[in-house]
Amino acid sequence: MSKRKIVVMPGDGIGNVVLPEALRALEAAGFEADWISAGIGWEHWVAEGNPLPEKTVELIAEHKVALFGAITSKPKDKAAAEISPALRDKGHVYFSPIVGLRQRFDLDVSIRPCIAFPGNPLNFIRRGADGGAEEPRVNAVIFRQNTEGLYGGVEWTNPPDQVWEALDTHPKFAAFREVPREDLAISTRIFTRAKCRRICEQAFAYAAAHGYGSVTVCEKPNVIRETSGMMLDEARKVHGVYPQIQLWDTNIDAQMMWLTKNPEDYGVIVAGNMFGDIISDGFAGLVGGLGFAASANIGQEVGVFEPTHGSAPKYADLDPSIVNPIAMVLSAVMMLDWLGETETAAKIRDAVAAVIADGTVRCYDMRKLRGGPQAIDQGAATTTQMTDAIIAAL
Ligand code: NAI
Ligand code: MG
């Protein structure tokens, strides 16, 4: 049988460090594939004026599954200054290649599990009723709509006439009518019923398959009545198919306030793009932060798996590297689950859990050290040592 082909895009900075570590863990666990390298990121922007090369898009279209490390994004002026002189003033405009991938392949479902590993010294601790410390068992999985809403990109400063006139048909626009056009910035929040429906369906299906008792819609329908309202409507409809699972709804602001009060009460959470981004970072902070935060971007046909952290330029060139490979490894494990390789996935996840519980091998973040080469002398494991420990625990 020919081996499965998987596109690997290390990208920039520590993406080049953590992605090969994840492949090492996958192979050690017995998962074999042909890894098809593809370029993405800043280097491609500088050299080609496009951080998401067409060749990469073609490879993903062909093979349907990809692992992604991280990319570097820089503001408009830096992007213009760093592009190769031959490409300057030729109309190239920088855009985030990961957002580009989500749009190109309609990766509309983002899954971000925030599940505490027992023994992780970075787990959230709060004061209990008796005054002592208690560690709630956080086990939340965030389903974030990944393509629409406030990140849909339909926005203007100084909107064109047609847009202004259309807005002016809304009675509430009266408050903005006298504002000079160039002082008017507008970002739209477009939700579609089909995408609301799909994210809710995926959330409930996941809850049912993984034994979660509740799905919480985290939006703000009392104020953002149309878009948040549509998400809640669709959740209620999908709930009809899963009467055994409870449907709760919370407002994003209140949810952030409750985050540290009772995080253990939440199971699957579903939200639009921006609130999903916020709530998933919030929960990730309770279970170890960027060194642990894994994610999946899932479309109808294609899946792209990535840690939520970025390229961490300040640690990119450290040799040996000190960054924690666990977020990348757990992202690769999500890929295995998606591919149906659930046994291998469980094996690696258990190995990660064992290393964390054992506590002998901990990266600098887990030792609460300042990052830098000195961290190793202070007892931090290197990136490679962490992966070695995971492999040894398989
Ligand atoms: P970052 O996530 O790259 O790093 C922030 C800090 O988090 C690091 O300095 C480090 O202290 C810690 N950290 C990150 N990954 C870690 C790991 N695996 N283990 C231990 N600690 C880790 O975010 P930052 O510094 O804001 O952005 C750097 C670059 O990355 C920017 O160009 C930004 O645009 C880009 N970025 C890319 C993302 C992506 O590729 N999906 C996501 C976030 C930022
Ligand atoms: Mg984010």
From TrEMBL:
<dbReference type="InterPro" id="IPR024084">
    <property type="entry name" value="IsoPropMal-DH-like_dom"/>
</dbReference>
<dbReference type="GO" id="GO:0000287">
    <property type="term" value="F:magnesium ion binding"/>
</dbReference>
<dbReference type="Pfam" id="PF00180">
    <property type="entry name" value="Iso_dh"/>
</dbReference>
<dbReference type="GO" id="GO:0004449">
    <property type="term" value="F:isocitrate dehydrogenase (NAD+) activity"/>
</dbReference>
<comment type="similarity">
    <text>Belongs to the isocitrate and isopropylmalate dehydrogenases family.</text>
</comment>
<keyword id="KW-0560">Oxidoreductase</keyword>
<dbReference type="InterPro" id="IPR019818">
    <property type="entry name" value="IsoCit/isopropylmalate_DH_CS"/>
</dbReference>
<dbReference type="GO" id="GO:0006102">
    <property type="term" value="P:isocitrate metabolic process"/>
</dbReference>
<dbReference type="GO" id="GO:0006099">
    <property type="term" value="P:tricarboxylic acid cycle"/>
</dbReference>
<feature type="domain" description="Isopropylmalate dehydrogenase-like">
    <location>
        <begin position="5"/>
        <end position="390"/>
    </location>
</feature>
<dbReference type="GO" id="GO:0051287">
    <property type="term" value="F:NAD binding"/>
</dbReference>
<protein>
    <submittedName>
        <fullName>Isocitrate/isopropylmalate dehydrogenase family protein</fullName>
    </submittedName>
</protein>
